[in-house]
Structure formats: structure tokens, C-alpha cells
Model the fold of this input.
Amino acid sequence: MKKISVLDRIVLLIVGVLAAYQIVVGIEGFCTLTVLCYTIAFGVLMFAALLFIIFGFDILDSKLVVIVAATIPLILSLALIAEYLPSVRTVYMAFAVVGFGALAVTRYTASGAVATVVLATVHGIAGLLIFSLPIIIAVQGKTSPGFALVGVGGALIGTGGSLLLFLKLGRPILSRDTIFTVLPVLLLFMTAAFVAGLAMR
Done:
């Protein structure tokens, strides 16, 4: 496992600060459910950044951390659905609850392959929504063009998730050291894209 560097810790500290800023300043003007979802998602992101700073990349071997981290795209996508597609909010909320339950149960009770498939499915659906929905809404003129940056953040979270997923499957797209070298930077650009996109909505 690659040891976390001072530069990695600085980058992750910036991620944590951006996430904290979004919680304190950047979620005004949304419906109650959306505010709650953004608060949880960016709170988990801030907490995850702090765990990386303190414990390094070894923390990714923890089953609990994998479950908690997987909630970020799930809850972010629920926030977008609640705000911009309220007609399917209840259905997607049910999917989010079932998806989170499946992640928790399979991570501790199922084989590695089954748990990974469940993680890939839930993470994939949530990531696709985070990527596509803001871009579609921005193109339709329902928000400012800058809101499409949230979709860019979705693409980056999907990229990071895919790198870690294939690493867990034993078929890494990049070497293990390369993945952990680029991960903090991916998290930084992802968080910055989310914060900027939500600010320009």
C-alpha cells in the first residue's frame, strides 16, 4: 500500500475545507430533503478526507469505510432527484434505502465478488445520475450553464470509484501506487466541481 505523503494530506485537507464550506454556505435555497442530503453527503466527504489524513490509504481496507464512502454518490444523487425530478423522488428514495442496506449486508455477509457487484451496481446508477442529470438540466436551460460542473464532479467520482472497484476485483486499470497517487487529486477536482457547480446554479 502506498504511504500517504505530506502533499496528499495537504490536498485532502483542502477537500475537507471545501466540503465544510459547502455544508455551511453552499446549500441555501434548496428544499428540505435536498439540504439534508447535501449536508450528509458533504459531511461524509469531509469525514472521509480527515480519515485519509489521519490513517492513510490503509483505511480503504475497512469494510465500514467502504460502506460509508459509497453513501456519497447515493445521497448526492438523491439530492439531485429530490430537487429536479420530484415526481420520482419517492421511488428513488426507496432505491437509495434498499441500495444502502444491500451494501451494508453484502459487505459483511456475502463473498467478495457478490459484495463488489452490489457496490458496482449501486455506485454505477448513482454516479450516472450525478453525471447526466446536471448536464441535461443545464442544457435545457432550467439552471445556469455552470451547473453542468456538478456533472463533471459526477464523472470524476465515477472515475475514482471505477479505479478502486477494478483494484478490488484484482484487475486494476492502473497500478495500485498510481491509483493512490491520483486519488487525492481526483477528490479535490471532484469536490471543487461540485462546489462551483452548486454555487452557479
Observations:
- The helical segments are 6-24, 32-55, 63-84, 89-109, 112-139, 148-168, 176-199.
- The two ends are 39 Å apart (CA to CA).
- The mean pLDDT is 87.
